[in-house]
């Protein structure tokens, strides 16, 4: 039986990291201090010769034949070797990126009493607070979150949509509509890298589920002791990350068993493959473990969109991607069941994906 999450509202004011930052405690509360094996190494390391691929979206959409071919090869490499890439020239108005960042920051600087009108509900990841908290002794992330379900409309919880700041809801609606179109287009090109029809994923997904989460990481006096976000892979098909301007570099991915920082590219989105796409491609394209670290002096804001199939859909490896050389690695399952399993599980690397593996037993 799945554990019942503790509502972040009950975790207590002392565990709201923005309030902690204001109080400037002499030591980091034990609830946030990671075990030695989990602590981030913050020493400045030389950048690896290889960096996360950058995809020029405009070259896919309207490039000449050579540009298109080159970009498709880059996209294939990004999906096969990295599971992460950055997209530039994505066609979304830069003023909209600024607007969503502004309303997100304006929300997080509201008084605590105002933000607590929208508490994260037990058993869900919608609302304000800390997500994926299941026990009183669990280590907490140095992060405040605000998350909303967007599409289909029945997953929305209207009472969690804030009245302040002004234009918050309106901005989220417009922004999310544009990001949704980007996800649809990216999946068309990803389908082509797999020699599938361009509309393959659109047909398979039905009315795609979409959610947004805003993460705020205040500065931390001892960034070597805490994590901004625990290591995990995403349960989505695609995740779209907008990194706020002027903040610290916090995103790290696990590459060749080493944590590698993702240097933000101005006005780019960071895209990563989620567990769902790993299952559908039978492991050809893998979801990648990632985490966030904090900074001693700088804060960081990120805005994350999750895009996944309808909850009604039965998912499993695409038959065209299963053969003698690549036998079936995952079972067929209901996506709604998997989503429920994901949001009621502690963030712990890629452990949630065991739900779908052929050798794994269905959780009870």
TrEMBL record:
<keyword id="KW-0408">Iron</keyword>
<keyword id="KW-0560">Oxidoreductase</keyword>
<dbReference type="GO" id="GO:0046872">
    <property type="term" value="F:metal ion binding"/>
</dbReference>
<dbReference type="InterPro" id="IPR026992">
    <property type="entry name" value="DIOX_N"/>
</dbReference>
<protein>
    <recommendedName>
        <fullName>Fe2OG dioxygenase domain-containing protein</fullName>
    </recommendedName>
</protein>
<feature type="domain" description="Fe2OG dioxygenase">
    <location>
        <begin position="207"/>
        <end position="309"/>
    </location>
</feature>
<dbReference type="InterPro" id="IPR044861">
    <property type="entry name" value="IPNS-like_FE2OG_OXY"/>
</dbReference>
<keyword id="KW-0479">Metal-binding</keyword>
<dbReference type="Pfam" id="PF14226">
    <property type="entry name" value="DIOX_N"/>
</dbReference>
<dbReference type="InterPro" id="IPR050295">
    <property type="entry name" value="Plant_2OG-oxidoreductases"/>
</dbReference>
<dbReference type="GO" id="GO:0031418">
    <property type="term" value="F:L-ascorbic acid binding"/>
</dbReference>
<dbReference type="GO" id="GO:0016491">
    <property type="term" value="F:oxidoreductase activity"/>
</dbReference>
<keyword id="KW-0847">Vitamin C</keyword>
<comment type="similarity">
    <text>Belongs to the iron/ascorbate-dependent oxidoreductase family.</text>
</comment>
<dbReference type="InterPro" id="IPR005123">
    <property type="entry name" value="Oxoglu/Fe-dep_dioxygenase_dom"/>
</dbReference>
<dbReference type="Pfam" id="PF03171">
    <property type="entry name" value="2OG-FeII_Oxy"/>
</dbReference>
<dbReference type="InterPro" id="IPR027443">
    <property type="entry name" value="IPNS-like_sf"/>
</dbReference>
């Amino acid at each position: 039986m799945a554990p019942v999450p503790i509502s972040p509202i009950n975790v207590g004011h002392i565990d709201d990291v923005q309030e902690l930052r204001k109080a400037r405690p002499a030591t980091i509360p034990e609830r946030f201090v990671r075990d030695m094996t989990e602590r981030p190494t913050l020493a400045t390391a030389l950048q690896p010769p290889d960096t996360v691929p950058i995809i020029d979206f405009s070259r896919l959409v309207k490039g000449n034949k050579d540009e298109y071919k080159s970009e498709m090869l880059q996209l294939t490499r990004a999906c096969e070797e990295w599971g992460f890439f950055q997209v530039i020239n994505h066609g979304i108005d830069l003023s909209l990126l600024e607007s969503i960042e502004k309303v997100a920051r304006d929300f997080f600087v509201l008084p605590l009493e105002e933000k607590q009108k929208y508490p994260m509900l037990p058993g869900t990841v919608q609302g304000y607070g800390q997500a994926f908290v299941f026990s009183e002794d669990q280590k907490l992330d140095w992060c405040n979150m605000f998350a909303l379900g967007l599409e289909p409309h029945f997953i929305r919880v209207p009472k969690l949509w804030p009245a302040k700041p002004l234009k918050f809801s309106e901005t989220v609606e417009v922004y999310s509509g544009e990001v949704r179109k980007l996800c649809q287009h990216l999946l068309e090109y990803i389908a082509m890298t797999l020699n599938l029809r361009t509309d393959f994923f659109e047909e398979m997904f039905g009315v795609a589920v979409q959610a947004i989460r805003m993460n705020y990481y205040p500065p931390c006096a001892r960034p070597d002791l805490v994590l901004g976000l625990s290591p995990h892979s995403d349960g989505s098909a695609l995740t779209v990350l907008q990194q706020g301007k002027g903040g610290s570099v916090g995103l790290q991915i696990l590459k060749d068993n080493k944590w590698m920082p993702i240097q933000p590219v101005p006005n780019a989105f960071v895209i990563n493959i989620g567990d769902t796409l790993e299952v559908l491609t039978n492991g050809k394209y893998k979801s990648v473990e990632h985490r966030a670290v904090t900074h001693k002096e700088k804060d960081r804001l990120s805005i994350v969109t999750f895009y996944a199939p309808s909850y009604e859909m039965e998912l499993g490896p695409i038959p065209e991607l299963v053969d003698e050389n690549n036998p079936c690695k995952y079972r067929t399952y209901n996506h709604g069941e998997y989503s429920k399993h994901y949001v009621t599980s502690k963030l712990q690397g890629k452990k949630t994906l065991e739900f779908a593996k052929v050798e794994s037993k269905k959780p009870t």
